[in-house]
Description:
Layout: E1 18-20, E2 27-29, E3 40-43, H1 47-54, E4 58-59, E5 72-76, H2 88-99, E6 104-108, E7 122-125, E8 128-130, E9 134-135, E10 143-144, H3 147-161, E11 163-164, H4 167-170, H5 173-200, H6 202-214, H7 221-235, H8 242-263, H9 275-289, H10 294-300, H11 304-317
Parallel strand pairs: 5-6
Antiparallel strand pairs: 1-2, 3-6, 4-11, 5-7, 7-8, 9-10
Helix pairs in contact: 2-3, 2-9, 5-6, 5-7, 5-8, 5-9, 6-7, 8-10, 9-10, 9-11
Amino acid sequence: RRTHTTGPAATPTPLSSSRISRSGRGVRQSFPSPTPATRYKRYEMDSTFAAAAAGGGEARGGGAGGGAGGELILHRWPGHWGLPSLSPECIAVETYLRLAGLRFSCEDCKTPYASPSGQLPALDQDADVVGGTVSDGEDGVGLRQDPSTATYRITAHLKRKVRDLDVALNADASTRSLLTVYLALVEAKLAPATAYYTWVDRGRFAKHTRDAYGRAFPAPLSYIYTWLWRRQVVSQMPGYDEERVLLGVADAYGALAARLADSGGAYFFGNVPSSLDAIAFAHLAFHAHSPVGDAMRGELKKHPELLAYVNDMQGRLY
């Protein structure tokens, strides 16, 4: 892996100002930040690992390790809590890129408004931005942040136009169905648990989430924006309580541990990575390492194979 930094530091702009996004197709709101979102990192996977990680994945347009049609730039929440990003959705996209052996750059954005799409994660491929928002109004404050939708769009774009990690699995109908079932399990059980303990749980939100996500904003904006984001997540999770979340987590951990054991390899489907590895690793790593995941770690420790999987993936990829 080769890492270098490029690009000068941007000058913070007043709250009311705006500037044209790099894509030239829209306006990106800029907010004062102690360290603006201008830090780029380029990651180039070792060619041997890239070939092994991509194992049978189909490259579209670009060669192994390269992006089709232009440079790939991932706009993400910055790393925190010992994780590559604050957001499991950002971790999922970055992990997909790494498993596919693609060259890409990361731009750490302290707020979603610094992203060219107005949302994180976002993928910029030669000024073609993938991942967007649905606006509730024209003031920008009512933007419905839906990172799971952005992650789905980015992954679908990568599968369709760059490299499909699941191409080998999709060749067999039964394996394809199994992959679909486990992807749905992660989205139905692990993703709500992550959202619940990050945003809905009042104690963890006040102690950890508000500071982590609001640190780029001066007071009182650091409280206002994180409160608005929390309110939106709460509105999307009616009927969820801690008992329901923990039961779902226990079911998901057990099923994933059994799938990993049955695979007989380093990944959930043997020795070839899939999109399931990207999204499952993102949530499992978040549960294992973030302070908001402490309520789930007791259950996670019942499955040492999952903890070993997280450590192996993090060591291999990051």
